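ARCHIVE CARD
SHELF: 3
SLOT: left
DATA:
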Amino acid sequence: MMDKNSIQNWARNLVEANPDHLNDPDNYIKHIGQVYNLAEGVVRNILARYPNIPLIGEEVSLASGLHDIGRPLQKDQTVHELRGARYSEQEGLKKGVAIINDVSL
Protein backbone atom coordinates (compact mmCIF):
# COMPACT_ATOMS: atom_id res chain seq x y z
CA MET A 1 0.00 0.00 0.00
CA MET A 2 1.12 3.56 -0.64
CA ASP A 3 2.48 5.83 2.04
CA LYS A 4 2.81 9.61 2.26
CA ASN A 5 5.95 9.75 0.12
CA SER A 6 4.36 7.55 -2.55
CA ILE A 7 1.31 9.80 -2.76
CA GLN A 8 3.47 12.91 -2.97
CA ASN A 9 5.60 11.31 -5.70
CA TRP A 10 2.50 10.33 -7.66
CA ALA A 11 1.17 13.88 -7.29
CA ARG A 12 4.52 15.32 -8.38
CA ASN A 13 4.46 13.13 -11.50
CA LEU A 14 0.92 14.31 -12.28
CA VAL A 15 2.00 17.93 -11.88
CA GLU A 16 4.93 17.36 -14.26
CA ALA A 17 2.66 15.63 -16.78
CA ASN A 18 0.11 18.46 -16.59
CA PRO A 19 2.07 21.72 -16.38
CA ASP A 20 0.21 24.97 -15.80
CA HIS A 21 -2.85 23.30 -14.25
CA LEU A 22 -2.01 24.48 -10.73
CA ASN A 23 -1.10 27.94 -9.49
CA ASP A 24 1.29 26.67 -6.79
CA PRO A 25 2.42 23.07 -7.41
CA ASP A 26 4.87 23.05 -4.49
CA ASN A 27 2.14 24.05 -2.06
CA TYR A 28 -0.09 21.33 -3.52
CA ILE A 29 2.54 18.66 -2.80
CA LYS A 30 3.08 20.05 0.70
CA HIS A 31 -0.69 20.11 1.32
CA ILE A 32 -1.00 16.42 0.47
CA GLY A 33 1.65 15.56 3.06
CA GLN A 34 0.09 17.79 5.70
CA VAL A 35 -3.36 16.28 5.24
CA TYR A 36 -1.88 12.77 5.41
CA ASN A 37 -0.12 13.64 8.68
CA LEU A 38 -3.22 15.29 10.12
CA ALA A 39 -5.37 12.24 9.40
CA GLU A 40 -2.73 9.97 10.92
CA GLY A 41 -2.79 12.02 14.13
CA VAL A 42 -6.59 12.14 14.28
CA VAL A 43 -6.85 8.36 13.95
CA ARG A 44 -4.16 7.85 16.58
CA ASN A 45 -6.09 10.12 18.98
CA ILE A 46 -9.39 8.40 18.29
CA LEU A 47 -7.92 4.95 18.84
CA ALA A 48 -6.21 6.05 22.05
CA ARG A 49 -9.58 7.07 23.42
CA TYR A 50 -11.76 4.42 21.75
CA PRO A 51 -9.54 1.40 21.02
CA ASN A 52 -12.43 -0.80 19.86
CA ILE A 53 -13.30 1.35 16.85
CA PRO A 54 -12.27 -0.63 13.75
CA LEU A 55 -10.17 2.08 12.10
CA ILE A 56 -7.04 1.31 10.13
CA GLY A 57 -4.86 4.37 10.39
CA GLU A 58 -2.89 3.67 7.23
CA GLU A 59 -6.06 3.47 5.15
CA VAL A 60 -7.54 6.66 6.58
CA SER A 61 -4.25 8.50 6.05
CA LEU A 62 -4.01 7.16 2.50
CA ALA A 63 -7.55 8.28 1.66
CA SER A 64 -6.86 11.69 3.19
CA GLY A 65 -3.64 12.09 1.25
CA LEU A 66 -5.38 11.13 -1.98
CA HIS A 67 -8.33 13.48 -1.57
CA ASP A 68 -6.76 16.07 -3.92
CA ILE A 69 -4.91 13.77 -6.35
CA GLY A 70 -7.22 14.93 -9.17
CA ARG A 71 -6.22 18.60 -8.96
CA PRO A 72 -3.37 18.47 -11.52
CA LEU A 73 -5.47 16.58 -14.05
CA GLN A 74 -7.38 19.64 -15.23
CA LYS A 75 -7.02 23.40 -14.84
CA ASP A 76 -10.71 23.67 -13.92
CA GLN A 77 -10.79 22.59 -10.27
CA THR A 78 -14.54 21.96 -10.21
CA VAL A 79 -15.25 18.36 -9.14
CA HIS A 80 -11.55 17.59 -8.75
CA GLU A 81 -12.53 15.15 -5.99
CA LEU A 82 -14.60 13.07 -8.40
CA ARG A 83 -11.94 13.30 -11.10
CA GLY A 84 -9.33 12.15 -8.59
CA ALA A 85 -11.49 9.28 -7.34
CA ARG A 86 -12.02 8.03 -10.90
CA TYR A 87 -8.32 8.39 -11.68
CA SER A 88 -7.39 6.51 -8.50
CA GLU A 89 -9.80 3.73 -9.42
CA GLN A 90 -8.33 3.46 -12.92
CA GLU A 91 -4.64 3.81 -12.05
CA GLY A 92 -4.48 3.06 -8.33
CA LEU A 93 -3.61 -0.63 -8.40
CA LYS A 94 -0.69 0.08 -10.73
CA LYS A 95 0.56 2.71 -8.30
CA GLY A 96 0.09 0.63 -5.14
CA VAL A 97 -2.90 2.50 -3.73
CA ALA A 98 -4.23 -0.89 -2.70
CA ILE A 99 -3.02 -4.42 -2.82
CA ILE A 100 -5.42 -7.24 -3.54
CA ASN A 101 -4.37 -10.23 -1.47
CA ASP A 102 -7.23 -12.49 -2.48
CA VAL A 103 -6.59 -13.58 -6.08
CA SER A 104 -10.05 -15.16 -6.26
CA LEU A 105 -11.62 -11.71 -6.56
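SLOT: right
DATA:
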Amino acid sequence: MANRSDQFIFIGVFIELILFVFFFYFNDAIEDVFRLSARYTGRISFGLYLLMFYHFLNEKSKGTSLQNTYLWGMVFCVLHIIHFAYLSAAVYLNDLPIIPHKIAGGFLAYLAIVIYPFYMMKIKRLGIHLIYFYYVGFVMAMTFFARIRGEFEGAPQSSFHYFGIVLIISFFLYCPYALFKTKKT
Protein backbone atom coordinates (compact mmCIF):
# COMPACT_ATOMS: atom_id res chain seq x y z
CA MET A 1 0.00 0.00 0.00
CA ALA A 2 2.86 2.37 0.79
CA ASN A 3 4.16 1.98 -2.75
CA ARG A 4 0.80 3.01 -4.23
CA SER A 5 0.53 6.03 -1.93
CA ASP A 6 4.09 7.04 -2.87
CA GLN A 7 3.15 6.87 -6.55
CA PHE A 8 0.01 8.97 -6.06
CA ILE A 9 1.90 11.45 -3.89
CA PHE A 10 4.58 11.77 -6.58
CA ILE A 11 1.95 12.34 -9.28
CA GLY A 12 0.12 14.87 -7.09
CA VAL A 13 3.28 16.80 -6.23
CA PHE A 14 4.21 16.82 -9.89
CA ILE A 15 0.78 18.20 -10.87
CA GLU A 16 0.95 20.91 -8.21
CA LEU A 17 4.43 21.93 -9.34
CA ILE A 18 3.28 22.00 -12.97
CA LEU A 19 0.43 24.29 -11.90
CA PHE A 20 2.94 26.62 -10.27
CA VAL A 21 5.16 26.65 -13.39
CA PHE A 22 2.11 27.29 -15.59
CA PHE A 23 0.99 30.24 -13.47
CA PHE A 24 4.58 31.51 -13.28
CA TYR A 25 4.88 31.44 -17.05
CA PHE A 26 1.56 33.19 -17.73
CA ASN A 27 1.57 35.84 -14.96
CA ASP A 28 3.81 38.84 -14.55
CA ALA A 29 3.38 39.26 -10.80
CA ILE A 30 4.71 36.63 -8.40
CA GLU A 31 1.86 37.57 -6.06
CA ASP A 32 -0.63 36.31 -8.66
CA VAL A 33 1.39 33.15 -9.24
CA PHE A 34 1.11 32.14 -5.59
CA ARG A 35 -2.51 33.31 -5.30
CA LEU A 36 -3.59 31.21 -8.27
CA SER A 37 -1.44 28.26 -7.20
CA ALA A 38 -3.08 28.37 -3.76
CA ARG A 39 -6.55 28.56 -5.31
CA TYR A 40 -6.15 25.56 -7.59
CA THR A 41 -4.16 23.37 -5.19
CA GLY A 42 -6.94 24.06 -2.69
CA ARG A 43 -9.42 22.69 -5.19
CA ILE A 44 -7.27 19.60 -5.68
CA SER A 45 -7.18 19.16 -1.89
CA PHE A 46 -10.96 19.47 -1.77
CA GLY A 47 -11.27 16.69 -4.35
CA LEU A 48 -8.90 14.51 -2.34
CA TYR A 49 -10.91 15.13 0.84
CA LEU A 50 -14.07 13.96 -0.95
CA LEU A 51 -12.27 10.93 -2.37
CA MET A 52 -10.94 10.03 1.07
CA PHE A 53 -14.40 10.51 2.64
CA TYR A 54 -15.96 8.31 -0.06
CA HIS A 55 -13.49 5.49 0.60
CA PHE A 56 -14.00 5.83 4.34
CA LEU A 57 -17.78 5.44 3.95
CA ASN A 58 -17.35 2.55 1.55
CA GLU A 59 -14.82 0.67 3.68
CA LYS A 60 -16.59 1.28 7.00
CA SER A 61 -19.99 0.25 5.62
CA LYS A 62 -18.47 -3.01 4.33
CA GLY A 63 -16.53 -3.61 7.53
CA THR A 64 -13.20 -3.74 5.69
CA SER A 65 -9.91 -2.14 6.70
CA LEU A 66 -9.30 1.48 5.82
CA GLN A 67 -6.59 0.82 3.23
CA ASN A 68 -7.95 3.15 0.53
CA THR A 69 -8.89 5.75 3.11
CA TYR A 70 -5.31 5.64 4.36
CA LEU A 71 -3.90 5.88 0.83
CA TRP A 72 -5.95 8.94 -0.08
CA GLY A 73 -5.48 10.41 3.39
CA MET A 74 -1.71 10.39 2.90
CA VAL A 75 -2.02 11.96 -0.54
CA PHE A 76 -4.42 14.59 0.87
CA CYS A 77 -2.02 15.28 3.75
CA VAL A 78 1.04 15.87 1.56
CA LEU A 79 -0.73 17.88 -1.12
CA HIS A 80 -2.52 19.99 1.44
CA ILE A 81 0.86 20.88 2.97
CA ILE A 82 1.92 22.15 -0.47
CA HIS A 83 -1.35 24.08 -0.68
CA PHE A 84 -0.57 25.60 2.73
CA ALA A 85 2.86 26.70 1.49
CA TYR A 86 1.33 28.37 -1.57
CA LEU A 87 -1.39 29.93 0.56
CA SER A 88 1.08 31.26 3.12
CA ALA A 89 3.21 32.77 0.37
CA ALA A 90 0.13 34.30 -1.27
CA VAL A 91 -0.99 35.87 2.01
CA TYR A 92 2.49 37.25 2.67
CA LEU A 93 3.19 38.51 -0.88
CA ASN A 94 -0.27 40.05 -1.32
CA ASP A 95 -0.05 41.64 2.14
CA LEU A 96 -3.42 40.18 3.10
CA PRO A 97 -4.68 40.75 6.63
CA ILE A 98 -4.58 37.84 9.05
CA ILE A 99 -7.52 37.82 11.45
CA PRO A 100 -6.66 35.38 14.27
CA HIS A 101 -10.20 34.37 15.23
CA LYS A 102 -10.98 33.58 11.59
CA ILE A 103 -7.94 31.44 10.98
CA ALA A 104 -8.05 29.49 14.26
CA GLY A 105 -10.58 26.96 12.93
CA GLY A 106 -8.62 26.53 9.72
CA PHE A 107 -5.41 26.01 11.66
CA LEU A 108 -7.03 23.20 13.65
CA ALA A 109 -8.28 21.66 10.41
CA TYR A 110 -4.76 21.79 8.96
CA LEU A 111 -3.40 20.04 12.05
CA ALA A 112 -6.08 17.37 11.76
CA ILE A 113 -5.34 16.86 8.05
CA VAL A 114 -1.64 16.36 8.77
CA ILE A 115 -2.01 14.17 11.88
CA TYR A 116 -5.04 11.98 11.08
CA PRO A 117 -3.52 9.72 8.38
CA PHE A 118 -0.77 8.62 10.75
CA TYR A 119 -3.25 7.54 13.43
CA MET A 120 -6.37 6.52 11.48
CA MET A 121 -5.58 2.81 11.53
CA LYS A 122 -5.25 2.88 15.33
CA ILE A 123 -8.56 4.68 15.90
CA LYS A 124 -11.26 2.19 16.85
CA ARG A 125 -14.12 4.57 17.67
CA LEU A 126 -16.26 5.58 14.72
CA GLY A 127 -17.05 8.92 16.37
CA ILE A 128 -13.41 10.05 16.20
CA HIS A 129 -13.30 9.36 12.46
CA LEU A 130 -16.58 11.20 11.96
CA ILE A 131 -15.36 14.22 13.95
CA TYR A 132 -12.41 14.42 11.56
CA PHE A 133 -14.46 14.22 8.37
CA TYR A 134 -17.24 16.51 9.56
CA TYR A 135 -14.87 19.10 11.04
CA VAL A 136 -12.59 19.30 7.99
CA GLY A 137 -15.64 19.42 5.72
CA PHE A 138 -17.26 22.11 7.86
CA VAL A 139 -14.12 24.29 7.65
CA MET A 140 -14.01 23.83 3.88
CA ALA A 141 -17.70 24.75 3.60
CA MET A 142 -17.14 27.88 5.73
CA THR A 143 -14.26 28.84 3.42
CA PHE A 144 -16.56 28.46 0.41
CA PHE A 145 -19.25 30.56 2.15
CA ALA A 146 -16.70 33.26 2.91
CA ARG A 147 -15.63 33.33 -0.72
CA ILE A 148 -19.26 33.58 -1.85
CA ARG A 149 -19.80 36.50 0.55
CA GLY A 150 -16.69 38.22 -0.85
CA GLU A 151 -14.73 38.08 2.39
CA PHE A 152 -11.46 37.06 0.71
CA GLU A 153 -9.55 39.85 -0.97
CA GLY A 154 -8.47 38.87 -4.49
CA ALA A 155 -10.60 35.71 -4.51
CA PRO A 156 -13.75 36.22 -6.54
CA GLN A 157 -16.70 33.95 -5.97
CA SER A 158 -17.27 31.24 -8.53
CA SER A 159 -19.74 28.49 -9.24
CA PHE A 160 -17.13 26.08 -7.86
CA HIS A 161 -17.85 27.39 -4.35
CA TYR A 162 -21.57 26.66 -4.65
CA PHE A 163 -20.81 23.24 -6.12
CA GLY A 164 -18.39 22.53 -3.27
CA ILE A 165 -20.97 23.38 -0.62
CA VAL A 166 -23.53 21.13 -2.29
CA LEU A 167 -21.01 18.26 -2.37
CA ILE A 168 -20.09 18.68 1.29
CA ILE A 169 -23.73 18.79 2.38
CA SER A 170 -24.43 15.73 0.22
CA PHE A 171 -21.62 13.77 1.86
CA PHE A 172 -22.73 14.90 5.33
CA LEU A 173 -26.28 13.72 4.66
CA TYR A 174 -25.22 10.48 2.95
CA CYS A 175 -22.76 9.51 5.71
CA PRO A 176 -25.31 8.33 8.34
CA TYR A 177 -27.23 6.46 5.67
CA ALA A 178 -24.08 4.66 4.41
CA LEU A 179 -22.83 3.78 7.89
CA PHE A 180 -26.05 2.93 9.69
CA LYS A 181 -28.36 1.46 7.04
CA THR A 182 -29.71 -1.93 7.93
CA LYS A 183 -28.04 -4.68 5.97
CA LYS A 184 -30.38 -6.75 3.84
CA THR A 185 -29.95 -10.47 4.31
